[in-house]
Structures
1.
Amino acid sequence: MIEIMKAASEPRKPGYDLDREGQYFEEQLTLIRRLAVAYNRRELDDLHLFLAEDVEYHSQLTQDPVIGKEAVLAHIQERFDISKQGVQDVYAEIGFCQSEWGSVRLFGYDGQPCMLLSTCYGCTPIGLFTVDSQSALITSIEVWVSILDPEKAERTGEYPE
């Protein structure tokens, strides 16, 4: 019994059995990992290869979306530049959405792969990113800070590098 409890409390390792299935789920998980690698390295590297030309970046923190691959890449680069200046370090962890918001369940998000952003390893997440995709390309990046509560997401302990 103690071993079962210990295993349940330990972070999952990359390559773990997700007990989830479906090509769309696997595609989203792969794309979330690509996004997390970029955030953890604070480098765009090959992220452009995984963005649709008409990708949209939405955030609860801003009123207007950023639209188009070049504009989204420039927006993300601005965030990386701020982080590199030592204003705020960020760490991207793979997680899974828990979609309860008060008494409302946001169908379509429960169990969806997400990226959790925090200011140190293992710290309480301050942001949660989800992606929509089509044909193995990210079509939309959504940044959540409250409706999909980052603190309620299932954490894995996986910080892709």
Note: The chain has three helices and nine strands.
2.
Amino acid sequence: MKFPPLVANRPRLLLALTCLLVTGCSSSLALRFGYQNAGSLLTLRLKSYAPFSWSQRTEIENEVARYFIFHRTHLLPKYIATFRKAADQLTSTLSEKDLSALFEEGRQVGLATLEPMVQPMAKLLSQLDAYQAGELIARMEKKASESEARWANGSEEEQRQRRFERTKKNLEVLTGKLTPAQSVLMEKELSQAPLIYTAWIERRRRHQNLLAQALPTRDPQKIADAIRIRFQESVRSPSPQYDAQFARTIAKTLQALDETQRSAARERLREWADTLHKISAG
């Protein structure tokens, strides 16, 4: 499950179609287990971001419960349709243009997932007193600094290697283990994408500053605007050049699959869709 901006470092919706938007687990059992427990995990994570009062903690529990009822009823069908569409299009002729369109569809599903959180979060955050708001910003800053240190650690070559290994691991959730030749192809293509860690950090800092400026007003609309900006921008990278090369990399890697791998990937996508359909049906 991808969490709202107080929780997520980066919603990786570009790979949502290929490495499970919901849990990142490959089996139907893990997917079902992850979805059934996502609400509890989200509640715990949200509560950790500020010294909420008892009534505020209860409000978080109630809002998360309401959100997942809505999510299961209105949003899971969007995931199901996208997974099935991806399965149908996963052939040897899948083009970069086709994959970019699927990624864009994934971004729109991501926005639809995040938007219902905006007003409840804004209402809750507008109730924070000065101490609570200060603690919220301080804890967000601490978590941001920790992840920024991980992102920027090492030389550019080391950062590119970590990016490749992470991307390969995510894609193999769908495809199974890539062959050495397929891995070399992916690494070569991805190496042409710019490193954008600095841009990510700058954008996240801007988002945190917007929220920090809105919180003292205790105006739900201003707080909602700050949250919504972060949501809208977080579904894509800060670099169109990166997005284009990333789509090219994934498209070429998928084109290089043999028919056994491709058939298994299509079956996995359909299995995920079927599992989500059963979850949505209750």
Note: The first helix runs from residue 28 to 47.
